[in-house]
Amino acid sequence: MQCPQKDAELISHTTQGENGLTVSYSTCPTCRGYWMDSFSANFIKINTTDATRAIAATATYYCPICAKPLKRTTGDNIPENVYIFDCPVHHGYFFPTGQLTAFKKAQQMKIEYHKLWHIPMPNVASILLGSFVLLLLSGGLAVTFRGLQQRQIIESQARQILTNHEVYTTAGRSAVLVTATTGVDATVTVHIPALNNLSAPMQTSDNRTHQLTIQNVPLGTYPYFFTIEVAGKKIQSDTFTFTNP
């Protein structure tokens, strides 16, 4: 295959990457660029202390497989000053000289920052190229990132299962009715910590529509959340609020 810069034939390599995974990639002996798929880009080991090099922003590169012009890849996972180009029909990614080092350095710095400050990642795509591969792996980079993402994944699952919820106050303001709807058969418990640390299972006739009437609720604003049990697994929802005016 010819280098995307069309200055030499690519040389193929196979090596052991992060977590002992086998990664394959190609390099150009002339421009020293890298061509690889997203899996290899995410888990290849390189020396991130190597110096990076600036490239021409207007350069044009071509896919070595289909010869289509490559487009620049952008997103939360790639700093503005890092240039990565990918094939429009997803044959692979091209890293001009120095850009793979820059990408891996940025990737590692973001992981270390979130680990240091215990700040969850906003989403999977904020760190990996072709981030679906994260779900297939364990150990190394995948374990590090999965730990940072665990809370968001759980909350996302709860949002998908908990399709609707409402809190209604009675005319006399002495009771509230909490309702919840789930997209699958589930057991739902409502938690209202400020109301005497209330934690009560909700009633249901079909395992998808759930309700609970709570008596003698003082006036005020109350945070609440649900725990949802599906097939023996418990998931906690986001925290919401209701007001008994």
Output the keywords.
245 residues; alpha+beta; Immunoglobulin-like; 5-stranded antiparallel sheet; 19% helix; elongated
Set down the secondary structure blueprint.
Blueprint: E1 11-16, E2 22-27, E3 34-36, H1 38-43, E4 71-72, E5 85-86, E6 93-95, H2 99-117, H3 140-161, E7 162-169, E8 175-182, E9 187-192, E10 198-201, E11 203-204, E12 209-215, E13 220-230, E14 233-236, E15 240-244
Describe this structure in words.
By secondary structure, this protein is α+β, with helices and mostly antiparallel strands. It folds into 2 domains: 11-107, no CATH class; 163-244, Immunoglobulin-like, CATH 2.60.40.10. 19% of the residues lie in helices and 31% in strands. The protein is built from 3 helices and 15 strands. The strands form 3 sheets. Strands 1-2-3-6-5-4 form a 6-stranded antiparallel β-sheet. Strands 9, 10, 13, 14 and 15 form a 5-stranded antiparallel β-sheet that branches. A 4-stranded antiparallel β-sheet has the order 7-8-12-11. A hairpin with a 6-residue loop joins strand 5 and strand 6. Residues 131-140 have low confidence and may be disordered.
